[in-house]
């Protein structure tokens, strides 16, 4: 076995990695580590600040374990979020044990060489065992999600009761349209971007970040649900996805109409959830909220999203020193 930095791959090696069974079957189920999302994260967070510190373990020429990381300063992380391990050999304990041993020795050597003093990681049993004696912080996040293997009838039945009249009214009065790789429309996508800026009252991120998300749409890794009221764009929900999981990414809704109790967001989000099911995804992630959250707006948004599901789980995020 050998461990290599993803940053050191040649273009040909990188292409082989993204076309490997490991990446296609084990990594691409989620959106997090897809190349276009990495480029989006780099643009959003500051391309010059975060360096590719991902480590891949190979058995021969086949990747079998990965730790994806893009780190800044002295903290080893995934764009200042927790890192996690992806493994294709979890059913072979001996092989995985050897791969993880190599991964951790390479990680510690790399961290020492590049002056990384701390690491942020998800609740992974192997990472926790390695860093348990050096933990400095433990945080809890609540995450709302939907099981898309349930029927649409069950999904709708799980929607908060107070939302149902708003959804029913919107179904009749606010037509929606799904924009995906099957019917891409750059002009409509840009109208959504401009709608976001108008609603926010400011430009929150670069044109390049939006263009990267449109590229995700073209690559069948995102879709957009638009709603129109009196023939005017009034709501939009952008969803990103891997091969299994969908993520509520951006939601924009006309504030004046929302203030008038017109259910723009409710029906739009439900249409987005239904589309995820229609294209064969297995889970819809509605987002998370830290236990330590003090932002009232974030709490209100999370409460709104929890009205679409009866499922919630927790994630423990650890910070440790090397």
Question: What features would you describe in this structure?
Answer:
The protein is α+β, with helices and mostly antiparallel strands and 322 residues long. 40% of the residues lie in helices and 28% in strands. A hairpin with a 3-residue loop joins strand 12 and strand 13 (245-253). The model has no long low-confidence stretch (mean pLDDT 94).
Topology:
Elements: E1 2-5, H1 11-18, H2 21-27, H3 35-45, E2 51-52, E3 55-59, E4 62-67, E5 70-71, E6 75-76, E7 85-87, H4 93-113, E8 118-122, H5 125-131, E9 135-147, H6 152-157, H7 164-173, E10 176-179, H8 186-200, H9 207-218, E11 222-229, E12 232-241, E13 245-253, H10 255-259, H11 264-278, E14 283-290, H12 296-306, E15 312-321
Helix pairs in contact: 3-9, 7-11
Question: What descriptors fit this protein?
Answer:
322 residues, alpha+beta, 9-stranded mixed sheet, 4-stranded antiparallel sheet, 12 helices, 40% helix, globular
């Amino acid at each position: 076995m050998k461990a290599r930095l993803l940053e050191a791959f040649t273009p040909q090696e990188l292409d082989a990695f993204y076309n490997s069974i490991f990446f296609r079957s084990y990594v691409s189920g989620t959106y997090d580590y897809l190349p276009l999302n990495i480029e989006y994260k780099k643009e959003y967070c500051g391309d010059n600040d975060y360096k590719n510190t991902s480590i891949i373990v190979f058995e021969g020429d086949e990747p079998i374990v990965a730790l994806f990381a893009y780190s800044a300063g002295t903290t080893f992380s995934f764009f200042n979020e927790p890192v996690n391990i992806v493994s294709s050999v979890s059913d072979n304990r001996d092989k995985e044990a050897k791969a993880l041993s190599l991964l951790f020795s390479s990680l510690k050597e790399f961290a020492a060489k590049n002056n990384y003093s701390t690491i942020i990681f998800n609740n992974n049993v192997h990472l926790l065992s390695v860093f348990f004696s050096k933990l400095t912080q433990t945080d809890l996040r609540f995450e709302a999600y939907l099981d898309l293997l349930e029927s649409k009838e069950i999904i709708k039945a799980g929607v908060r009761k107070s939302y149902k009249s708003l959804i029913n009214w919107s179904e009749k009065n606010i037509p929606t349209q799904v924009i995906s790789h099957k019917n891409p429309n750059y002009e409509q996508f840009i109208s959504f971007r401009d709608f976001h800026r108008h609603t926010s009252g400011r430009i929150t991120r670069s044109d390049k970040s939006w263009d990267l998300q449109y590229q995700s749409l073209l690559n069948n890794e995102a879709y957009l649900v638009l709603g129109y009221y009196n023939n005017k764009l009034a709501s939009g929900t952008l969803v990103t996805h891997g091969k299994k999981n969908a993520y509520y990414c951006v939601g924009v809704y006309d504030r004046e109409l929302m203030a008038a109790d017109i259910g723009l967001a409710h029906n739009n989000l439900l249409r987005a959830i239904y589309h995820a099911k229609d294209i064969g995804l297995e889970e819809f992630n509605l987002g998370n909220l830290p236990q330590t959250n003090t932002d009232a707006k974030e709490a209100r948004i999370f409460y709104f999203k929890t009205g679409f599901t009866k499922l919630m789980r927790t994630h423990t995020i650890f910070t440790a020193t090397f």
